[in-house]
Amino acid sequence: QVQLVESGGGLVQAGGSLRLSCAASGRTFSSYAMGWFRQAPGKERECVAAISWSRSGGNTYYADSVKGRFTISRDNAKNTVYLQMNSLKPEDTAVYYCAAAYLKVVVTNSDEYDYWGQGTQVTVSS
Q: What is the DSSP letter of 107?
């Protein structure tokens, strides 16, 4: 069982930055692929960034809409995955969720994730 707790959301002006954190319980954090998803009102949940388990070198994925602005990283010593978000835009406004999948590869399909956090709100004002 893995529990995920997100933090770091909030209100920021367009062009600003936020760093989301997702703290995971359990001793096998490094064995999980991790992902960040977001869901805006009236829209489907989408994967914005994902990272593979540690032993495969931490391969990453980014949605085209965030490429070059967002960075996903993980610190296995702290059982934490981060999402650094720069140059934020109003269209980045959403609830952001982290998720864990007991898989080795980068995972972008939400159906393949086993555990989810409760979500943290990110609001970008224009």
A: -
